[in-house]
Structures are given as C-alpha cells and as structure tokens.
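Sequence in, structure out.
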Amino acid sequence: MTTEHIGGRQRLTLLVLLGAGFMLSVDFSILNVALPRMGEVVGMDLADLPWIASAYALPAAGFTLLFGRVGDLVGRRRMFITGIALLIVASLLGGFATSAALLLTARVLQGLANAIAIPAAMALLVTAVHDERARARVLGLNGALLSGGFTVGALVGGSLVSALDWRWAFWINVPVAVAIVAVTPFAVRESARPAGVKLDVPGAVSVTAGLLALVYGVSMQNWPAFAAGAVLLGIFWVIELRAKAPLASLTLLNRPNIKWGNLGGLIAFVMSTGVNFGLTIYMQDVLGLEPFTVGLVFGVPGLAAVVAGIVAGRLIGRYGYRTVLAAGLLTQGLMTVPLLWIGTSTASLFIIVPSLFVLFFGHVTAIVAYTVTATSGLPDSQQGLATGLASLSQQVAVTIGIPIFGAIAATRTDILDGIKLAMQAQVVAIVVAVALIWVGLRPRPQATEVAEPARVRSSA
C-alpha cells in the first residue's frame, strides 16, 4: 500500500484542525492548574472544586453524540465554527467572572462549545486523509499536539496564575480561537450532507437526557438521577431499533472495534483525570508547592507524551491497534503503582516526576490507539457519529474521573491516605479493562466485517 500524498490544501486543513485541538488541550490543562486559586477567589471551598470541572464536562458529555450526528446532517465545518465561536464567548465570560455562579455558567458554555466543535473537528480530520497508514500518522500527530497542549498548558497555567491572575487561564485562548474562526472558511471544505435524511429527534432527546442524567448521577453520587439516566438510555435503545433513520446505528455500536476502542478511551481518560487531580491537590495542599512548580511537575514529563504521539502511529501500523491499545493502557496503569509510595516530604517528587514520564507516554499511546480503533473501517458518512462516540468517551471520562477519584479518596480522613486508596482502585480497574479489551478485540475470522483491518507496513 502506498501512502497517500497530502497536498497543499490538505496541509492547510490539517493545520487548522490540529491547531484547534492543540488550543483546546492547552485551555483544559491551564484551568486544571488554576483550580485551587480560581475556587478561592469566587468563594468555593476544596470540596466544591470538582464542580468547576463537572460544569464543563457534563454538557460536553451529554451533547457530544447529538452534535456529532448533527454535524453529519448540516455540515461539520459549520458546526466546528459554531463551537469555536461559542468558546470565545464562554472564555470571555469566565475571565470576567466575579462569582461562583458566573464561573460555572462560563464552564457550562465551554463544555457545550466543546461538544459542538470536537466531534466536527475530529470527523473533518479523519475524513481529510483516506489512506489508513497516513491517517494513523495524522492521528498520531494529533495525539502529540494534544499532549503537547497539555504540557504547554500546565507550564503556562502555572506561570500565569503565579505571575498574573487565574483569569488569564480563560483569556489566553481567545485570540487563537478568533484566528481559527476567521481562517476555517477558507482552509476547510464543508462535508457532504446526505439528502433527505432528518435528525432522529426522539433518539436525540432520549440519549442526551439519558447521558446528562447518568453522568450527573455518577458525578454527584445521585443514584435516582443515575437510575433515570439508565432508563432513558434503555428507551433510546428501543427507539433506535425502530427508527427509519436512527441517530446511532445499532449495527455500528455492536462492532467490536467501536465497543472496545471506546472502553479503552474511557478508562484511559478516567485514570489520567483522576490521578492528575489527585496529584494537583496533593502537591499544593500536602507539599505546599506553588502553582508554577506544580505546572513544571506535570509539564516536563509531558514531553514524553509528545514523543508518544509521534511514534504511536508507527507502532499501530506495525503491531495493530489491539496490541498498542492494550500496551499503552497497561503502561499507564502500572506506572501509577510507584505513586503509592509518595509521602509528606518534597522528596516524593523524585518518585512523581519519573513515574509521570512513563505514565504519560503510555497514556498518549493509548489515546492515539483508541481513536484509530474506534474510527477504523467506517464510511465517511458515519465518521461524524464514530468520532462523536470517541469524543463522548473522553468527555464522560473527564466528567466522572474526578468525582470517582474524589469519592474514593473521601472515604479516608487523611488526604494522602485517600489519594493512595483511589490510585490503588484505578490500577485494579485498568488491569481488568485491559484483559477485557484484549479478549474483545481478538481476531474473528468468521466475521470479517468487524475484524481488525489488516496491518499496514510502517514506512521507515
């Protein structure tokens, strides 16, 4: 197989879409570092800090699948521009917030903006390159830029919070977002829209309400909401069985690469979100480190994640996404084990920093592999839904990762003991998940339509 030649227009398209992903990852990690200072200024105590993250991730999770499908029907470029424009408004509002209510409103709007923009951007990115080997390389580069964004965000966020003010964590992405909105109409072609296909409104309403209730129930440990969400998702399943033009094809949802690839993404992000939150609280509240130092601790090991994004595409081409996904997840999980030996002395940084180097490498490798797994072997007409599902896995994980970690940690009165207990639980969960994914993605000669595509040779 020969690698597809990427022309000048494609390069410009990739530059815009990859740049948008980089900006969004910078924005996310900047705000993570700024959480303690942000909450203090607007009158939120430590127990309320997860709300800042959940206010963003809840609408991002609830609406991602819907807007991914809407992008298929009305145009992905249009949805992408709409999402980035809304992000500008939300970032300005967040930067000027003087109360917890305004801050949380801004975070809700940011989450909604991401639910609109990310599935559209990913679908545009995946369909911009048709050769599977070239696509894996592009997705690997995307993973490298995302991890680079998290690294830059951690470093810049610590610097901004220490030298200026937490408000700049919101404002810094505004000029970049404005430039993306201005350039996109000239750089990115609008996607083809199917004729005569209407949005499955009952399916859209039931799945969105179900996801919101389900994720809220997990996040807030509200079990009636969780039960209501489960019922609504069951109704959605029944609706999709009977719909002439379903929001989500059940045949698609039953494909092994869709099911197990998204499980891999869910586990990878739950693990990283929870551990990063726990370490942020630990380093600032137990070790007493300044935000800038915390940013360095996360940022410097993030360089390994950039390398992982670059090489992950080659690894997938050589070994297949099943092997690389399992290996990346296992590396991420096992490198949490050394963190169980951290203590109350800053000498613990000699454990944290090298562990994060390898952990981040495994995490980004798993992220690239799950994205390739969950979007492989599908026609362009279904890529909006497939990338919507992949984005949904990420957003749900980001939403529930911190509350799950915090709930486990809260069972101990000592902060450090609680963080260690939560890390132990996550290690067990990831090992079990890897075993399930390995079995679930095993080759099936009798069902070639859902088997993993043939591996492509990696070009040197």
